[in-house]
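Internal QA ticket QA-208
Title: Verify multi-chain structure generation after dependency bump
Assignee: T.L.

Test input:
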Amino acid sequence: MSERISLLGTSPPRLDGHDKAAGRALYLDDLDDTGVWYGATVRSPHAHALVRGVYFDAQSAPPGTECVTAADIERNNGLQTLDDIWPLLADREVNHVGEAVALVVGPDPQTARRAAAAVQIDYEPLEAILTWDQAEEVEPLCTLSLDQGDAEADFASAPLLVEGEYFTGYQEHIYIECQAMQAHWEADGTLRIQGSMQCPYYVKKAMLHAFALPDEKVRVRACLLGGGFGGKEDYPSMIAAHCALLARKCGHPVRMVYDRHEDIIATTKRHPSRTRIRTALSGEGEILAAAVDFDLDGGAYQGLSPVVLSRGILHCTGPYRVGSVRIRGRVLRTNTPPNGAFRGFGAPQAEFAWERHLDRISRHLGMDPLTLRRKNVLRPGDRLPTGQVMDESCSAETVLERVAESTDFLRRWRACAKDRSSAPDDGKPRRGVGISLSFHGAGFTGLGEERMRSPVGARLRHEDGRLELLCAATEMGQGAVSTLPLLAAESSGLRADQVSMAEPDTAKVPDSGPTVASRTSMIVGGGAARVAAELCGRVLEWKAGSDGAEWSLLEGNVFRNGQLVSPF
Amino acid sequence: MRVAFTLNGRPVEVEGQGDERLLDLLRRHFRLTGTKEGCGEGECGACTVLMDGAAVLSCLTPLVQLDGRELFTVEGLEATTRGSQFLERFAAGGGTQCGACTPGIVLSAARYLSETPVVDRNGIRRALAGNICRCTGYEAIVKAIEAEGGRKDRVQLALHPSDPELTEERES
Ligand code: FES
Ligand code: FES
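Actual output:
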C-alpha cells in the first residue's frame, strides 16, 4: 500500500465542476416533471392566533385541485427532530407568521397558486411574544449550563470587574437554490422522497414518524444542493412531509419549490442572540472568572435549538484561558418562525459577544487589544470550560501572532487610536481597526460522534472495477463528492479517478450521519479512508493467499512480487 | 401570442402568453435547465442569458419581448469548443462550488471576455455586478476570468448570430 502522501495538499479540479459550469448538473427542479403535480402552502399572516376554521372553496378553485389541512393528517402531526412539537400543519392555533396552515395541489405551479387563493382561514388574533423582555416572561424552550471552578469566590476576590451586553440579529442562508422537494407514493405503499436536503436520514426519520411507516417503506434520495449552509438541515423534512401529504391526497408525485419570498419568510434562520458577560480580572488583565448569560431567540418551536445552544455554550469564552466559569444558556420562545442550523451553529453568536467583551476589557485596562489577547490566549496544557485539556497542540497563539505580524496590527491600531483622540468631537465617522480570534469544534460535540459511529461502506463495482464509497454525505458545494474519493484513494493506493461515490439514497447507503457541523471531510472522510484501505487490503491478501506471491497496490496499479501486473 | 426567435443559433417559434417569463420558457418548454432561478425578481443573476449579445435576466424578460431576438444560454456556450474549454478551466480554477449561480456567471463572463480586448479585475467585477454567488467569495471566479483573458484561445462569442463558429459547432 502507498506510504507516500501523494494527493493530499494538492488541488485537483473538483469532479462535478464542469457539469455545474455547463448547466448539466441536475438539481431537483431540473428533473423531468412529466406527470408531476405542484404544491403550494397557505401560511398564517398572524404571529399568534386561534384558527377558527379552514375552508377550501372547491367551487372557485381550479378543477381537480385539492386541499390538505391538519384534519387530514391521519398519523402524527409533528415534525420529528429532537422532539415532535412543531406541527406539520397548524391545528387550532398558529404561533408565528408564515406557519403552514393548509396545503393545496394542482397539475402545475400556476394552478396550485390559484388554488391557494381559494382557501379561506378564519383567525382570532392573540397577543404575541416578540421581544426579549416578553420572552423572559414565559417558559424557555430549553436551558443548559456549564460550570468550572469556583466562579463566585473568584468574583469576590478579583480586583477588577467588567460587564457588558451584546446582541446579534437574524441571518438568512440565501442558498441560491431555494428549498425544493418531491414526494411520490409507490403502489406498494412505499414513500419516496427526493430533493434538496443536507441530511437524507433526518428526512427519512421524520417521514417514518409522520406517517407511522415501517423502516423499509420510506426511501429518501438527496439531490445535488444549490447551497445549504445549515438551512437545509431541518426544514427539508417539513417540505417533504407536505409533499407526501399532498401526493397521498391527489395520487400523483408532488413537487414543491419555494420562491425566494416564501423561503425567507418560512424557513429557519440563525438565532438572534443576547449575551450578558461579567468578567473578573487581575490588574494585569488575566481573566480570572467569567459569568455568561447566553440567550437565543428560538422562535415558536424548539426544533434543533437545544443543540445550537449547546454549541454556543461550548464556545462562550472563545480560544482563551479563563480561570472559572459560570455559563447559563437559554433558548427563549417567541412568536416568530423557528430558528435552526446555520454555519457555526450558535458558536458565532457566542464568540462575537466574547470578542467584543475582550475589547471592552482592553479599554478598561488601557491596554491594546492584542496584548490582552496574548495574555489570555489558549496554550498547550490549558483547560477549556468543559474540562478538555489542550494536550495535543493548540495553534491559537501562532494564528494570533501571525495575523498581528502580517497586518502590522499594533502600529495601525495605535495610529487609529491617536487619530481618534486628537479628532474634534464633530460626530463624523472615524476609522478603527480590530483583531479577533475564534475557534470551532468540527464534528458533533461531546460523545456525539462516538454514539453515531457513522458507518461508511465501500464496494468494488463489477461494471467498471471502481471502488464505490457508500455514505450519506451530500454535495452542496463544499466538494464532498471530490474530497472523499481523494481520501479513499490516498489511504488505499488507488487513484482518485478509480473511486466514486454512490448517490446519497437511503436505500443504497448506510447512515453515515448528517452533512453538517463541518464533519464530512474529517469524520465521514476518515471512515472512507479506513474502509477503502481495508477493502483493498483484503483483496490483496486474498490474492496473496491464492498464489503465495506478494501483492501490492500503488497509485492505482497492481503489483505482484514488485512487477506491474495491471491497473486496478 | 406567437413569437419567433433564435435560441442558441437555431430558429424557434413559440405560442404562449405574452407575460410568460423567458426563464420558464427555457426551463419548462425547451427543457434547457442550465438557466437557474435564484430569486425571480432581478436580484441574483442566476437566470442570466444573452439576448442580442447583452446579458439579460430571464426572470424579468417576458415572452412578448422575444420576437426577432437572438438568445444564447449556457447550453449554447457549452456546445462551442472554446466555450466548453472555458467552462472546464473556469471550474478547475475553483470558479464553482454549489453551482447554482454558475451558469449565470459564466455567461456574464463570456460576454465580457468577448467584448474586452484587455481584461482587468475592475472590469471583471463590473461585468459580474449583477451576479450573486453565495459560496465562493468571488475571488476564485475573478481569478479564473482573469486567467482566461490572458489566453490566446480564450472564449470568444460571436455576439452576432451569423457567426460561423457559433452556428457550425452547435449543429455537430
Ligand atoms: S432569478 Fe432572475 S435575477 Fe434572480
Ligand atoms: S457556487 Fe454556490 S452560489 Fe455560487
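Spot checks passed. The longest helix of chain A spans residues 520-547.
Status: verified.
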